[in-house]
Write the structure tokens for this entry.
Amino acid sequence: MTTRRRFIRDSAIAGAALGAGLPVFASSKGSKWVSNRPPVKQRLFKSKAVENIIGEISDFLGNNELAWLFENCFPNTLDTTVFYSEKEKRPDTFVITGDIHAMWLRDSTAQVWPYISLASADRDLQSLIAGVINRQIKCILTDPYANAFNDGPGESPWINDITDMKPELHERKYEIDSLCYPVRLSYGYWKRTNDRSVFDASWKEAMKSVVTTFRVQQRKDGPGPYKFQRVTGWQTDTVAGGGYGNPVVPVGLIVSIFRPSDDATIWSFLIPSNYFAVRSLRQISEIAEVVYNDKTLSADATLLADEVEKALKEYGVAKHPLFGDIIPYETDGYSNFNFMDDANVPSLLAMPYLEAIEKSDPLYQNTRKFVLSSSNPYYFKGIYGGGVGSPHTGLNRIWPISLTVQALTATTDYDIISSLRMLKATHAGTGFMHESFLKDDPGQFTRKWFAWANTIFGELVLKTYQTNPELLKEI
């Protein structure tokens, strides 16, 4: 077993042990569905707004399994993964993923994102989310090429990676989305709360670093300063080309050495992440102009967004023999294309969820048909239904996150209902979502304690309740 896989296995065992050690309690309604949340005194953070919506949806659904799943999953991030404090008189929130005690820029955003809609009604929740943003900015300023961070200087199991490791880093895998997610959180938080307190001098400095990093990784003037290698038997955990990745033609797209799965890219122009970058750069531009009145940063971000968007139209479309023009997962500027999708977000499937493309766009719809078909090598279909998996967990494993995203990007009630039914049928009696499950045996799953999967499932239930609540009664 490789070092990486042993670490994931040991982390999962630790998470499972912790989960098993948390006593359960009967809900106040005396439901036969016994809550799997930790007792109130053991919860890391309490939000009145979150508890109110749990109660409201539970009352609407009644005493059933879907209500129980929502009660367990939606608050899981707050119950078990957030560490809130104040530093330098500003909110500061460190967010672990669950079974790995480190903060990913991607996961930390995704874990608290569904709570933004409730933040205006809960000042404490608002401060918690502001604290996540403030911590993320510190992380970016520490190293814009890192994906995961310790809570201050500490030790990492990857200290011997062949890259510029620092004590503050848990892992240093450069991924475009790691820089996009904090922008998404900042922008979404600002729009929903109208709170500008997170936009201090450090935030603007971090955004300048994001724009600079993206420009460098267009590789017009060589590969740039970042490279990564790991001594491992696991191919996707190290990088070809002496740590710089396979060659690319500098066509205006941005290189991402790793995917959001933390697996190395094959062709380094990761297309869904480039779409995400365009959206994030336009958000940086708007904030720079409206909040800071910084026309230079605003124009710089817009110029880069325009350039990447133009390159996507020229190099981010390929003709598939069955589906016609679709968006490939990866390319390199040499007309090589990787026709696949990965459950980790950003994915091709998830781009409308990230507001990176309209779900009605014919190009997206063609791509969606491909992704949800046997032509996608990581689409698996079994006894419990079908969904997208990932090379990260191997063949025949479906990811609950992909089932949730399929519903969040759906244009039909059928897609929402079928996804929710699959999610309800595959939690293996645990009351929580997992990283992946075997397509014919949900009892064989990975990561018992994976907060992102839990919270995004809660987001789906909440969104459905807010837009078409009667659908939930059909599950």
Residues 81 and 157 are 20 Å apart (CA to CA). Confidence is low (pLDDT under 50) at residues 1-30. The chain has one domain: 3-474. The first helix runs from residue 3 to 21.
